Amino acid sequence: MKFRQAIAVALLCTSPNGFAIDDKPENRASQAERLMAATPPEEIMEDMIENFTVNLKPADRDDFRRLMTEFFNLDLLKRTMRESMIRNFTADEMAAISALYETPVGKSAMENMAPYMAEVMPVIQSEVMRAVGEFQRVKENEQQGSED
Fold first, then answer.
1. pLDDT tens across 95-106, in order?
2. In three state form, how does the secondary structure of the chain look?
3. Domains of the chain: which residue ranges?
4. How far apart, in whole angstroms, are the C-alpha atoms of residue 66 and residue 56?
5. Share of the chain above pLDDT 90, in %
6. Residue 15 above 80 pLDDT?
7. 21 φ, ψ to 5°?
8. Residue 117 above 70 pLDDT?
9. Residue 38's pLDDT is what?
10. CA-CA distances (angstroms) from residue 63 to 31, 58, 59, 138, 146?
11. Do 23 and 92 touch, CB atoms closer than 8 A?
12. What's the rounded Cα separation, in Å, for the pair 31 and 90?
């Protein structure tokens, strides 16, 4: 009998729902704060600026840094990030993401995200532009075909 009770307690303790955070607004808000502390927007922006300037002409880099540090509204970004996290993630999801980013491997992964995005974003941007051009040509051909 004690063996069965021990198994039941072990299963309860290891169950994903055994220690779930109640998904209410105040818990979402506190987990959003925890997540933002684990991945500070200031550091994300600093990394993004540094990594994106690599893709700019050397003559444009200082102006871009100035633009992003003096004129970019970081407070607006932080409010938007927090509000979006609260709307889109459960308290448990934010806790799990925070737990990852609070580990050495998670911190390392986060540090690698900015250079990764700096390499990928130019391809995404150029491919979107190419696709838009192709789409516009197809639409023009379709319209010309329907006029005949």
1. 999 999 999 999
2. CHHHHHHHHHHHHHCCCCCCCCCCHHHHHHHHHHHHHHCCHHHHHHHHHHHHHCCCCHHHHHHHHHHHHHHCCHHHHHHHHHHHHHHHCCHHHHHHHHHHHCCHHHHHHHHHHHHHHHHHHHHHHHHHHHHHHHHHHHHHHHHHHHHC
3. 19-112
4. 14
5. 63
6. no
7. -85, 130
8. yes
9. 93
10. 36, 10, 8, 38, 48
11. yes
12. 9
Rounded to an integer, what distance in angstroms lies between the CA atom of residue 139 and that of residue 110?
A: 41
Of 36, 15, 13, 14, which is closest to residue 89 (Cα–Cα)?
36
The pLDDT, as a whole number, for residue 31 is 97
What confidence tens digit (pLDDT) does each residue in 72-91 have? 999 999 999 999 999 999 99
Sort 94 into a burial class: Cβ within 10 Å, 0-12 / 13-18 / 19+.
buried
Tokens of 66: 């100035």
CB neighbourhood size of 93 (10 A): 16
pTM of the model: 0.68
Amino acid at 119: E
- Amino acid letter, residue 139: K
